[in-house]
Design goal:
mainly beta; 13-stranded parallel beta sheet; eleven-stranded parallel beta sheet; 5 helices; 38% strand; globular
Length: 732
Amino acid sequence: MNRTVNTVRGTAAAATAAFLAALLTAPAAQAAPGARTLYAAPDGRGTSCTVSRPCTPEGARDRARTEKGRDVRVLLKDGTYRLDAPLRLGPDDSGTTWAAAPGARPVLSGGQDITGWHRNADGTWSAAVPAGVTPRQLFVDGERATRARGEACAASTCDASATGMTGATATGIDHWQRPTDAEAVIRVRWRNYHCRIAGVSGDTMTFVQPCWTNSASGTDRTGPAWDSTAVDSTRYSGVAFFENAPELLDQPGEFVWDSKGRTVTYLPRKGEDMRRARTVTPHTEQLLVVDGAHDVTVSGIGFAYAAYRQPGTDEGYAGMQAGLTLTGATGPVDHAGRYYTKPSAAVTVRGGRRVHVDSSRFSHLGGAGAILEAGTKDSSLTRSSFTDLSSGAVYVGDTEPMPEASLTGERNTVAYNTISRSGVEYTDSVGIWAGYEAGLSVDHNSLDHLPYSAISVGWGWNQPEAQKSVLRDNKVTGNRITDVMEVAQQQHDGGAIYTQGAQPGTVLSGNYINRSAYGNTERDGNGIYLDEQSSHITVERNVITRIGYKWVSNWADYGIRNTARGNWTDTAAPALGGTGSVMTDNLTGLDRLPAQALAVAARAGAHGGPVEQLRTDLARTGTATQSSTDGTATAALALDADTNTDTRTLSEAGAWWQADLGAVRHVRQVEIWNDAATTTADFDVVTDDGTVHVSGKALRPTLVNLDSRTRTVRIVTSGTGRVALAQVLIHP
């Protein structure tokens, strides 16, 4: 069995390497006989398109179309190409290569400079905004500013219903100068909503339509029939913050847009001089659109400051999952997400064949990075970087489970890319999303510091419309995923790698996952999440550590015939759900990664990298006791190397749990994982030579640093209550 798996993996790796090698050599190769090289420049003009008399990109494209029967390369000279509309390539542009000229770093930009700043008496600076420009994002000397925002408003005050929300009086919104410029930002489990205020009457706020209706329940278009994650559901806990009001402009690095005065006002960070700073807002939505073309290569080009306008309209941002939104005032009844809308992206490929985007740079975007859709096949996005994006980095495929053959996404590749800090604004988006794809390869990408899931493949939630689909033979291999499902962003019920749907032949292998939902306040956030109808998927030889919940989750009984084998992890997980699903030969509950696991983890990602080794746990050989036991929740369950099982005392004064190490040891740190209900709060960590107090609830985990020589470590509640723990690790 192992020989077969390794042979398949080696063949896949060799194919990927050969493919990338071809991309590496193609742009630099000598032009074939009869080939034509054209040049473009930011200040290009005319139709010569020579190195000394370059054209605009559009001019070079039009000239290339006249070179019938010849291979054409368009080389972009250094500089920033300011686009008022996307560069569009169609069938007539098939066979062309668009690349950076030797030594150049060209950037296609959708940005609009904001100039003419003047200082206000309160220390803020203001500038007029050109007609037709609506600043939703602002970048000052390349650093993203924050739309002025307030504090959270709990559901007890900001009580949402299908028609609006209370709380205008308590928040002071009823006295704001222009509340209709402001938006409510709401997070409910895995969803994110941004709706602008339409009006204020007394204590009640209403919001623009159809944004609010699409964010509420009852549309019969918002997801599965069991869906309970709308703004007017019991899952709603309040507004994360209101944003874009001058009354909220109180922190350096914040800005506000005044739609009536058509001005933007900014409070500078320390050291910023608005008389000299370059200030840019995304304005043009798409920068490159390849529609119906084949055999097109794009290499070495940067894409920056592309806009995403929908959230600023009455449509708003009614997030459904992974950065897709519900739009339109009406639509067909659908519980499988077939009619959701993707975000706008800097690069969009529609119906492409053998379209390759390589060694490109995506940064400072108001929406997503790149989309391959509408039946794009045999195409790739490789060796590119994505950083500081409002939405997700890469979207591949569509949401129709059984498209006609010409619209089926097949044999596409997303490989050797680095993705960091995507989803900055729309925190429900993911790093790499794939819908109903077949033969997709997501290979050796590095993803870090993301608010929600890193890689999501599949769609449909087991709804009748989606139970049969084209999903099959997808590979998620060799990826490095660190610090995702960031706790501060409050997005829940996801995983570093997330799947949906029956996917025969799909393999998740050789991935390194570290710190997904680490430090959470609840038992949430998975390593690999085989959600809903995920079926026929093999999970093998992955290294998964420091996970907020389960290293692998397969909870649904209708997700069948999944296999998890030969993985390395520091915790255990419940058995896989569903008929025919099995777990075998996994090394779980580790406190040190073996050499083989370290090697797999070190190879993962676009460039490989360091591996955070696990730390020796002295408690493994200790003895646990507690002041009392509630039912079967015994003290030993905190020492079983499983963060999914819990101890629990009775509620009593001075309740305690203790580990006896059997001898005096030098202890540097105690790692405390709270139970599922986050019970343990306001407690002391007591050793033989001192006490450390912890206020508030313990996290998953709370880290308590010590410098103690002790035989025992005791966790004692400060008052009357319970001590309940999933795991306690004691590090030398």
